Amino acid sequence: MHNGRIVGNFCKAALAAILLTAQIAVFAADPVVSPQTEPPKQAAPAAKDAAPISAAKESAVAKDDLALKSRGATVKVDSEQEPGCAEKVIDGIIAGEKDFSNCWAASLEKGHAHWIEVYLPKPEVVDRVLIHFADPAVHPVWFEGFVMPEGSDKWEEVFGIVGYKDPHSFEGVIQPQPITGFRMLIYESASDAVPNATQVSEIELFPPKK
Ligand SMILES: [Ca+2]
Question: How far is the CA of 202 from the centre of ligand 1 (A)?
Answer without folding.
Answer: 4
